[in-house]
Design goal:
- The chain is an all-alpha fold and 164 residues long.
- The protein has 2 domains: 97 residues, no CATH class; 65 residues, no CATH class.
- It contains 8 helices and no strands.
- The longest helix is centred in the N-terminal third of the chain and has 18 residues.
- The radius of gyration is 18 Å and the shape is globular.
Length: 164
């Protein structure tokens, strides 16, 4: 019986990987969404060949197109019209409305609000009033939602993240 359960768990895990979009799509019809609903306006410039491969989100729970709870690019990064349509005379393309890494980041509460729009009311969240919130830690300081393996949710790397 244990062997049968082991096989069932393996099949369930394999099915879960398929449902989670184990590999990012390598192509898209012009103007079609590649990973997330409504991402065509983002993926016309951003692809898996970038220094920070944004399409790897397809390998995470945040990139499951079939799940109605899945966010869109703009759910987290804002509408970012100036980023999408570079203003005339601008020397560089402006950053998206909300960024989570790099320089000139919005305050932690602004970044965290993007996460807490969906991650609220869950027994695991316990954010409000937590030491992380009172110390001004942003969710993205530790979590990496575009990476297939979030270092906080992977038991072997979790202590390294937390103690850093």
């Amino acid at each position: 019986m244990k062997g049968f359960r082991h096989v069932l768990h393996g099949l369930a895990a394999a099915t879960g990987l398929l449902l989670l979009g184990h590999a990012a799509p390598a192509w898209s019809a012009e103007g079609a969404d590649m990973v997330l609903r409504g991402d065509a306006k983002c993926t016309k410039c951003h692809d898996e060949g970038e220094q920070y491969p944004v399409l790897s989100i397809a390998q995470t729970r945040h990139g499951v197109k079939a799940d109605a709870r899945t966010p869109t690019c703009t759910s987290c990064h804002g509408e970012s019209e100036k980023h999408i349509n570079k203003p005339a005379g601008a020397t560089e393309r402006p950053k998206p409305d909300v960024t989570f890494m790099g320089k000139n980041l919005p305050p932690p509460d602004v970044r965290n609000e993007q996460c807490l729009n969906c991650h609220k009311g869950n027994a695991r969240t316990l954010w409000h009033g937590s030491r992380h919130e009172t110390e001004g830690v942003a969710c993205a300081n530790c979590h990496s939602v575009h990476k297939p393996r979030d270092p906080v949710l992977t038991k072997i790397t979790q202590p390294d993240v937390c103690f850093a």
